[in-house]
Write a sequence for this structure.
C-alpha cells in the first residue's frame, strides 16, 4: 500500500493563557495515521473530539493558540517523505494547494461576498501559479469546471446568487484547481439539504476517481462515511480508537464507541427509536485517565480507569484500542 501522508505520535494542543492562568486543550493527542494513495479516508467522531483540529494539523496550519507539542507529519512528495514541520514557511506554502488542499466547513468563508466568483479564482491562481494572464486563468477555471461537470456560468455571479450546494461545489472546484494529491474536507456536507449533500458527495467521488488522489474527509455523519469512504478512523477525545476498512467497521465494529456510533444510525423500515450514546464527550482540558471512553462505556472495568489501551491488530487493515478487542 502506497502511503501518501503519515503522522507519528502527532500531538497538537491549544495552549491558552489568560490572567496568568494556563489552559491546555489536548485536541490531537498522539495520533498515528498512514493514509494510502488513491482512496477516500474518513475520520468520524462526535463534535469536540478533535477531528477538525487534526485536519488543521495535517494541513500544517498551526496558528496560535494551536501548537505542535510532539510528533511528525510526513508528506510523500516526488517519492520522498518530507518532514513537514521542519520545512520553511515558504516550502509549506508551496506545497499547500499544489500537494495538499483544504475544503472548509462553510463555503462563505472562502468566497468573497462582494466579488464575482471568477475574481476569487483569479486571485487564487495569481498567488499560487507563475502565470499572469487573466485569459489563461479564465481558460483554466472553465476547463476545470467542465471536467467536474459544473456550469461555467458560476464564475460570473456573486456567491449569494448561488444555492448553498452549488456554492460548496464551487469551493471544491477551487480547492482542486491545482490538482492536489491530497484533499482535506472538513464536514463538506454540513448545513446542506439531502439533495445538495448528494451532489457534493458525487462530486467528491468523481474528483477522487478522475484525479486518482486521496481525500481525507471529516464528518460526524456516519451515513456519509458509509456512502463515500473506503477506510475510516474513529476518533474519541483526541485519539484514534479504531481504524479499518469502512465496510468492515460497519459490518463488525469492535470498539464500544464505534458500535454506539453505528447503532445510533437510523435504518430504513425500522421505526424503533435509536439509542444515543450515553453521557457526553469529555473535556479535552482534563480528559479522564485510562481509557477516555470509560465513563460512558458499558463494558468498562477497573483496568480501563487507570490504563490507556494500546492498539490491537484485528487483521492487517483493522486496529482497535480497547482491552476487550482480543
Ligand atoms: Fe470500554 Fe475499557 Fe474498552 Fe475503553 S478499554 S472501550 S473503557 S472496555
Amino acid at each position: 500500500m502506497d502511503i501518501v501522508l503519515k503522522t507519528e505520535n502527532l500531538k497538537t494542543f491549544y495552549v491558552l493563557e489568560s490572567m496568568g492562568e494556563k489552559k491546555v486543550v489536548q485536541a490531537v493527542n498522539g495520533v498515528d495515521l498512514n493514509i494510502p494513495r488513491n482512496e477516500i479516508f474518513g475520520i468520524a467522531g462526535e463534535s469536540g473530539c478533535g477531528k477538525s483540529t487534526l485536519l488543521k494539523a495535517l494541513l500544517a496550519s498551526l496558528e496560535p493558540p494551536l501548537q505542535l507539542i510532539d510528533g511528525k507529519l510526513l508528506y510523500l512528495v516526488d517519492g520522498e517523505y518530507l518532514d513537514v514541520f521542519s520545512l520553511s514557511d515558504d516550502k509549506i506554502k508551496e506545497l499547500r494547494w499544489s500537494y495538499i488542499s483544504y475544503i472548509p466547513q462553510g463555503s462563505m468563508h472562502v468566497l468573497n461576498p462582494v466579488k464575482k466568483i471568477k475574481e476569487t479564482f483569479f486571485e487564487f491562481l495569481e498567488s499560487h501559479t507563475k502565470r499572469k494572464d487573466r485569459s489563461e486563468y479564465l481558460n483554466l477555471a472553465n476547463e476545470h469546471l467542465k471536467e467536474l461537470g459544473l456550469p461555467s456560468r458560476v464564475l460570473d455571479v456573486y456567491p449569494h446568487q448561488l444555492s448553498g450546494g452549488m456554492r460548496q461545489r464551487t469551493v471544491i472546484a477551487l480547492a482542486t484547481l491545482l490538482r492536489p494529491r491530497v484533499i482535506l474536507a472538513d464536514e463538506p456536507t454540513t448545513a446542506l439539504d439531502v439533495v445538495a449533500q448528494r451532489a457534493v458527495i458525487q462530486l467528491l467521488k468523481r474528483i477522487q476517481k478522475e484525479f486518482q488522489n486521496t481525500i481525507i474527509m471529516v464528518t460526524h455523519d456516519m451515513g456519509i462515511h458509509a456512502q463515500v469512504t473506503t477506510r475510516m478512523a474513529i476518533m474519541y477525545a483526541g485519539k484514534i480508537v479504531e481504524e479499518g476498512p469502512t465496510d468492515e467497521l460497519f459490518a463488525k465494529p469492535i470498539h464500544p464507541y464505534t458500535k454506539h456510533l453505528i447503532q445510533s444510525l437510523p435504518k430504513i423500515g425500522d421505526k424503533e427509536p435509536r439509542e444515543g450514546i450515553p453521557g457526553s464527550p469529555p473535556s479535552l482540558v482534563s480528559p479522564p485517565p485510562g481509557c477516555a471512553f470509560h465513563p460512558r462505556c458499558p463494558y468498562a472495568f477497573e483496568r480501563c480507569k487507570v490504563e490507556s489501551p494500546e492498539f490491537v491488530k484485528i487483521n492487517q487493515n483493522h486496529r482497535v484500542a480497547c482491552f476487550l478487542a482480543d
Q: What stands out?
A: The domain at 3-114+158-325 is CATH 3.40.50.300 (Rossmann fold). The longest strand covers residues 3-18. The chain has a mean pLDDT of 93. The CA atoms of residues 23 and 42 lie 30 Å apart.
